[in-house]
């Protein structure tokens, strides 16, 4: 067995050389995760705002379910998407199984509840705080919603970044629905799992370093946004 | 009781009561509020001052009785602990202006800020202001609605003498500009300095509504006499 430091040295060499395989995997990973985050934001944020600002029968149950779905096991999501997109499934005719689109769908399903539940909490907390002032200032419904979304913007960006981080680090669901096909659906997390099992530790390690760097950058961004918001918006 | 037969009242309360469940907060309050010098609401904690202000503003609906306004009476309300929007000082004013048909230009914003002595804090995040400054901004926000009637709920509670003086100067200036002020306070000195007339509440009932000098020299009810003597009214 090779000494671990040799694997680290080879991994760093791969990063320095800008290995083409590595680049393609990182590019696809970012494309899939950014698409999934955008899709989840489009569904999750309006859903969160709707639940926060409306009162209806069964609202508490919806909140409990949304909060519960934040802990969805990725492999279960992968299995459900697999069954839906498989040849005999309800959307089998679309032929999306083992494509990046299926991976986007799986990641989006995984993080939509996270974005919706956290958005609901942020908007509802601000609504509770602002409601008496809005009433006293005679603020109309449309202006109320716009103001709440605008004043929550920094928290909502942080939520989006959290969703992105969760999706980027996910392996189970994309492995099931993407199939980890070389050059087509192979992303960082699935590559790390595969290369580790093959004993190709330098590639696995270099991908791991990039993944950790991305997660760190995302968290640093979230932190910076929060700091900037506190300094400039209060 | 005060007799305002010579001045048309802005607001008339006829046997107004407000209950929460079986708890009576206000009982059978009848009074006329006329334009002119500030009206100060006095009374011990739990006497119904804030509830009366909220009823006058329309933030609460009487359980029984009626409140009638003169036509098109523009009202504004400042809470004891106003909530600042997560924006700059100027943006808080702009937000209030946007709720009206008033011009939200920089000149209008600056004019309102000058009126409350906050022009130099134009770009400061509103939540970073001191308690007194936040209260002045809340008054400026209320004045942005161009009110004929301004309701203030203990705006100087827990402020130091300098901040209190600044608020009282703004109130006097607004009253001189023709804005009718109705303000709750615990501070007898403040009531002496500002009030044209006094409404005294005790245990949710109207004790007195009388010109200020009469109240302080010849209180007509035992509760008011005890209150002025600093006795506990339970």
Query: What string gives the helices and strands of chain A in order?
Result: HHHHHHHHHH
> Which strand order does the major sheet of chain B show?
5-6-7-3-8-9
CATH superfamily of chain A: MetI-like
Count of helical regions of chain A: 10
**Globular, elongated, flat, extended or rod-shaped: what is the shape of chain A?**
globular
Largest sheet of chain B: 6 strands, mixed
- Runs of chain A in which pLDDT lies below 50 for 5 or more consecutive residues are none
**Strand elements of chain B, count:** 9
Mean pLDDT of chain B: 92
Main sheet attributes: strand count, strand direction, barrel closure of chain A: none
Can you give the helix content of chain A as a percent range? over 70%
The end-to-end span of chain B amounts to 23 Å
Question: Helical proportion of chain B?
Answer: 25-40%
- The number of E-state strands of chain A comes to 0
- Portion of residues in beta strands of chain B equals 15-25%
CA radius of gyration of chain B: 18 Å
How many angstroms does the end-to-end distance of chain A come to?
56 Å
The CATH architecture of chain A: Orthogonal Bundle
How would you summarize this macromolecular structure in one to three sentences?
The complex is a heterodimer of chains A (234) and B (234). Chain A is mainly α and 234 residues long.
Written overview of the protein:
The complex is a heterodimer of chains A (234) and B (234). Chain A has 234 residues and is mainly alpha-helical. Chain A has one domain (25-233): MetI-like (MetI-like fold, Orthogonal Bundle), CATH 1.10.3720.10. Chain A is 79% helix and 0% strand. Chain A contains 10 helices and no strands. In chain A, helix 3 (59-69) packs across helix 5 (100-136). Chain B has 234 residues and is an alpha/beta fold. Chain B has a 6-stranded mixed beta sheet with strand order 5-6-7-3-8-9, with helices on both faces. Chain B has a 3-stranded antiparallel beta sheet with strand order 2-1-4, with helices on one face. In chain B, strand 6, helix 5 (161-176) and strand 7 (180-184) form a beta-alpha-beta unit. Chain B starts with 10 loop residues before the first strand and ends in a 5-residue tail after the last helix. The relative contact order of chain B is 0.18. Residues 1-5 of chain B have low confidence and may be disordered. The A-B interface holds A 126, 129-130, 132-133, 135-140, 143, 147, 151, 229, 231-234 and B 57, 59, 76-79, 82-88, 95-96, 98-100, 125-128, 141-142, 145.
């Amino acid at each position: 067995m090779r000494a671990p430091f040799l694997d680290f040295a080879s991994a760093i060499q791969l990063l320095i050389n800008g290995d083409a395989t590595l680049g393609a995997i990182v590019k696809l990973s970012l494309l899939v995760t950014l698409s999934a985050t955008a899709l989840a934001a489009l569904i999750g944020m309006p859903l969160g705002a709707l639940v926060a600002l409306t009162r209806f029968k069964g609202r508490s149950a919806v909140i409990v379910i949304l909060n519960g779905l934040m802990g969805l096991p990725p492999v279960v999501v992968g299995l459900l998407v697999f069954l839906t997109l498989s040849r005999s499934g309800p959307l089998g005719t679309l032929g999306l199984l083992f494509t990046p689109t299926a991976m986007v769908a799986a990641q989006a399903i995984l993080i939509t509840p996270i974005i919706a539940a956290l958005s609901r909490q942020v908007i509802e907390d601000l609504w509770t705080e602002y409601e008496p002032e809005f009433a006293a200032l005679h603020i109309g419904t449309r202006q109320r919603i716009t103001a709440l979304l605008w004043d929550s913007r920094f928290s909502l960006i942080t939520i989006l970044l959290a969703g992105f981080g969760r999706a980027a680090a996910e392996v189970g669901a994309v492995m099931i629905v993407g199939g980890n096909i070389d050059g087509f659906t192979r992303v960082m997390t699935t590559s790390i799992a595969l290369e580790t099992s093959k004993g190709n530790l330098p590639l696995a390690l270099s991908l791991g370093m990039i993944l950790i760097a991305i997660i760190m950058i995302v968290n640093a961004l979230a932190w910076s946004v929060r700091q900037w918001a506190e300094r400039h918006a209060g | 009781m005060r007799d305002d037969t010579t001045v048309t009242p802005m607001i008339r309360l006829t046997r107004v009561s407000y209950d929460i469940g079986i708890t009576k907060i206000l009982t059978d309050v009848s009074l006329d509020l006329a334009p002119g010098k500030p009206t100060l609401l006095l009374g011990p904690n739990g006497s119904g001052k804030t509830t009366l202000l909220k009823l006058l503003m329309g933030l609460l609906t009487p359980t029984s009785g009626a409140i009638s306004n003169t036509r098109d009476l523009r009202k504004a309300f400042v809470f004891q602990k106003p909530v600042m929007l997560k924006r700059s000082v100027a943006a808080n004013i702009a937000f209030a202006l946007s709720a009206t048909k008033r011009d939200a230009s920089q000149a209008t914003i600056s004019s309102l800020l000058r009126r409350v002595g906050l022009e130099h804090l134009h770009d400061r995040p509103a939540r970073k202001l001191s308690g007194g400054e936040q209260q002045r901004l809340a008054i400026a926000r209320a004045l942005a609605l161009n009110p004929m009637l301004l309701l203030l709920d203990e705006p100087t509670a827990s402020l130091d003498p300098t901040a209190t003086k600044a608020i009282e100067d703004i109130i006097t200036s607004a009253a001189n500009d023709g804005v009718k002020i109705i303000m709750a306070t615990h501070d007898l000195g403040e009531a002496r300095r500002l009030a044209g007339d006094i409404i005294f509440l005790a245990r949710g009932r109207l004790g007195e509504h009388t010109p200020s000098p009469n109240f302080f020299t010849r209180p007509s009810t035992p509760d008011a006499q005890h209150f002025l003597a600093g006795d506990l009214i339970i």
